């Protein structure tokens, strides 16, 4: 039997049972659409996260307390373990290093921010005046607190735009007003521009920034830092600055064996590498889960094709009686199976693209998140390949069952 004749026969079979063909393809459509959506959303999320990290500046270096022995192993502090190895003497030593432009230590905590009858649970961060320039934090109202405020234990605060709107209302100017963070009063001296979600998933518009001295002594009761942010001198290579930071801290901590370092130094490149690997694995994991529906859809196609073989027993017998070979029968049923899954794959791609577009409109337009629309070609190629492969794999058994029928017994079948 010629390939053209097999295609015509498959087309006629679809037209004869349109509803059955549609229901047969439905599992493949849903499976392909799921793979498309998850891979697209995963790629978009990966790009969004990496863009957020890139936005903090390429010359920034993070120093986190606690050592790590592997590329993908988190420092102890990142695992919720309290490490007290970074302190003011480390900051002083780093500030004397010529390859470093600026240093900003940081501590953080949770507090209930209150003004009048309005209140909101927020994350507050205690830091120094250098922090605003290091993180490119712009103050739209008022001014950032100064080094004198930090040295003088000033009860001043710079708050995020959403926090300002919640406590004071969108039309009011909070500068000069007093707010309470838990039981401590702070005078608002500035309001940050709207920035959205930052690295680590922190909503920067709900932040309250206060002098690190006040945060340590009166809010948290500690003498150490959660991490230290360093800006590399642009005249030095970043890898050199990283090695100098390691040398300075090892000397300050009395460490002679680098394997025993009680701190971790992370550049933007290090963070991007780890995040990229994690998000890629998660995207593939989600796509693998969605692919389970393809297997279910394939089993559905196999069942329908087996029913079709039984229904068309007399047709098979007639074809074999007039000279059709076993290979012709196998070819005919395989083509029908592959066409079902291939058409289902095309519909699934279109449906998946529609869902992805709708998700992008909701996230980017409604929630005003800088979400990049991603429709990876790899997802389309995977969808087409998997759909065709599913048709072959799950069509072989019904096709072989059809080819094995005896023409005499098939013609007698009622």
For the residues shown, what is the average pLDDT? 81
Element pattern in H and E: HHEHEEHEHEHEEEHEHEHHHHH
Low-pLDDT parts are 70-74
Strand content: 15-25%
Can you walk me through this structure?
The chain contains 13 helices and 10 strands. With 414 residues, the chain is an alpha+beta fold. The chain has 2 domains: 191 residues, no CATH class; 178 residues, no CATH class. Strands 2-3-8-5-7-6 form a 6-stranded mixed β-barrel. The longest helix is centred in the C-terminal third of the chain and has 44 residues. The radius of gyration is 32 Å and the shape is elongated.
Short descriptors:
55% helix; alpha+beta; 414 residues
Write the layout of secondary structure elements.
Blueprint: H1 3-16, H2 18-54, E1 60-65, H3 88-95, E2 100-115, E3 118-127, H4 130-134, E4 139-142, H5 147-151, E5 156-159, H6 161-168, E6 178-181, E7 184-192, E8 208-211, H7 212-220, E9 227-232, H8 238-253, E10 263-267, H9 268-311, H10 313-321, H11 326-366, H12 377-403, H13 407-412
Briefly say what this structure is:
The chain is an alpha+beta fold and 414 residues long.
């Amino acid at each position: 039997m010629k390939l053209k004749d097999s295609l015509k026969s498959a087309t006629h079979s679809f037209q004869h049972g349109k509803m059955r063909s549609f229901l047969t393809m439905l599992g493949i459509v849903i499976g392909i659409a799921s793979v498309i959506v998850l891979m697209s959303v995963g790629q978009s999320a990966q790009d969004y996260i990496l863009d957020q990290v890139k936005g903090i500046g390429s010359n920034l270096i993070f120093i986190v307390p606690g050592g790590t022995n592997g590329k993908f192993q988190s420092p102890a502090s990142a695992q919720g373990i309290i490490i007290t190895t970074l302190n003011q003497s480390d900051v002083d030593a780093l500030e004397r290093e010529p390859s470093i432009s600026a240093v900003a230590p940081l501590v953080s905590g949770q507090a209930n921010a209150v003004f009048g009858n309005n209140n909101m649970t927020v994350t507050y961060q205690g830091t120094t005046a250098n922090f605003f320039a290091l993180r490119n934090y712009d103050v739209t109202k008022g001014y950032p607190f100064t080094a004198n405020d930090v040295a003088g234990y000033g009860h001043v605060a710079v708050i995020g735009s959403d926090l300002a709107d919640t406590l004071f209302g969108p039309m009011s100017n909070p500068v000069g007003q007093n707010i309470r963070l838990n039981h401590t009063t702070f005078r608002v001296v500035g309001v940050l521009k709207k920035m959205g979600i930052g690295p680590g998933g922190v909503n920067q518009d709900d932040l309250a920034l206060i002098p690190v001295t006040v945060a340590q002594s009166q809010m948290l009761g500690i003498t150490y830092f959660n991490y230290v942010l360093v800006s590399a001198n642009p005249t030095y290579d970043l890898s050199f600055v990283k090695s100098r930071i390691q040398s300075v801290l090892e000397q300050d901590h009395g460490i002679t064996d680098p394997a025993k370092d009680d701190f971790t130094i992370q550049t933007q490149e290090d963070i991007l590498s780890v995040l990229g690997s994690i998000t890629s694995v998660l995207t593939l994991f989600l796509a693998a889960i969605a692919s389970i529906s393809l297997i279910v859809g394939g089993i559905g196609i196999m069942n329908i094709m087996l029913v079709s073989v039984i229904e068309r027993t007399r047709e098979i017998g007639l074809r074999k009686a007039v000279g059709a070979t076993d290979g012709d029968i196998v070819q005919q049923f395989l083509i029908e199976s592959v066409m079902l899954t291939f058409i289902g794959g095309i519909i699934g791609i279109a449906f998946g693209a529609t869902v992805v577009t709708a998700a992008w409109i909701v996230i980017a337009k409604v929630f005003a998140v800088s979400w990049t629309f991603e429709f990876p070609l790899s997802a389309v190629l995977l969808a087409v390949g998997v759909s065709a492969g599913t048709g072959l794999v799950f069509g072989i058994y019904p096709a072989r069952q059809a080819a094995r029928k005896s023409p005499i017994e098939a013609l007698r079948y009622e």
